[in-house]
Amino acid sequence: xxxxxxLFYDYFSPLSRSIIILLEHNKVVYExxxxxxxxxxxxxKEYGQNVNRHHKVPVIHDNDGLRLAETxxxxxxxxxxxxxxxxxxxxxxxxLMKIDEFLQWNHNSLLLTTGSIxxxxxxxxxxxxxxTEHGMMKNVRDPTNFVDIHNSLNMLENVWLENKKFLxxxxxxxxxxxxxxxxxxxxxxxxxxxxxxxYPKVSRWLQDTKDYxxxxxxxxxxxxxxxxxxxxxxxxxxxxxxxxxxxxNLMNKx
Length: 254
Known about the structure:
Elements: E1 5-9, H1 14-25, E2 31-34, H2 45-50, E3 59-62, E4 67-69, H3 71-80, H4 93-107, H5 110-121, H6 136-141, H7 147-160, H8 174-187, H9 200-213, H10 216-220, H11 222-231, H12 241-252
Parallel strand pairs: 1-2
Antiparallel strand pairs: 1-3, 3-4
Helix pairs in contact: 1-8, 4-8, 5-8
């Protein structure tokens, strides 16, 4: 069966991973094109003109000439085109809107807070190889700077998972993927650890989500696991130019 669309992605993008796991779990045939964010490939003029004018991933190009960015829009496209089944894109409006409600909440809460931690701990190292300390590690190491992610975890624990096994219903939906991939951006890289006693429902939910979507889940997170094990947290403060270049070279081989 030939593919009907092409996906531009990077495994270091949690939103890319959420779409890939959804597609792979549903055995969807599609074409994949890797975009190395760490190399700045998405920032080129050619990328903006030919792939995505917003210079982000994920993006899909279909055979009818549609170019579509924004993960939630891609999810709706996959559902309305019948690429994913009703199991993953309900025809029941109430069920679909409950999924959409979580996706909208996630964008300005969990995804934003985990993304901020990842940026402070990792991405700044790839923007400056001068060896200058930017104070990023002090911000990341200080527990008081994790207030926002704890607020998000409290919402997951006490609101979204208050009386059900998963975020929207008692069975997984796409909400599980978009939330778990956001969390794994910091948990998998060992930038943050979920307190199992403080957030027992979140801990159980995250493990249940992994179990449900494996092996696709672990495959999509292989590089996150790899660098989490390699560095066991953020790259160390005050890196020398040689150390930063080594880190860049290591990531470029992934």
